[in-house]
Every structure is written in structure tokens, then in C-alpha cells.
Amino acid sequence: MEYLAKITKYCLISTRIAKMSPDQKVSFGNLPIAYLLAHDESNNDSTNYWVFSDTGFKRILFRTGWEICDYMTTGNTVNSDPATPEGDERAFCLVKSVLLRE
Fold this sequence. Notes:
Blueprint: H1 2-7, E1 10-17, E2 34-36, E3 50-52, H2 54-63, E4 66-75, E5 89-97
Antiparallel strand pairs: 1-5, 2-3, 4-5
């Protein structure tokens, strides 16, 4: 993301985010964290590694040189989790680079 922020002015991003742990026992939506998936935990796709909390996703964008222009979430916006199909919440955002030198 840092590299992209140095070579492009805008980026449209979509990613899965989560508010709850897979067992629904831990709420972490307001914490700046990421959940590390097991190799088969997300659609049995071993290329998926991380699911951020909403706050964690926004922080990683800021830390890698992006300003959020527009942001929305869709799907399970009440008790989303990183692993189940029922718990799928997606964030969509338009970001602008603060690192690009014009």
C-alpha cells in the first residue's frame, strides 16, 4: 500500500472487515487490530491472511500514506466475523495518496 501511495493519486479499495471473533465471544471492531486467518478459514482460500477490524483498516490506510475520501461498509454490519459466510462485512473506500509527489 505504501508503494502504491507513492505512484498513484487515488485508489479504490474493497476488503473484508470484522467486528467479532469467529466464535462471537470477543468484540474488537473499535480496536485497531487484524485477525490472522487459518489457511482454510476464509472460503478455503490459503491466500487470505488478514481480516482487519474497521478501525484497524482505517489505521493501516493512514499509516501507509492514504487519506480516506469516501468510505462505506455493506453486508453483515452488526456482528461480522472474519471467517463465516454469514459474518461477511465488506469495506469499500476511495483513498487519496498523501505521499505522491506531483
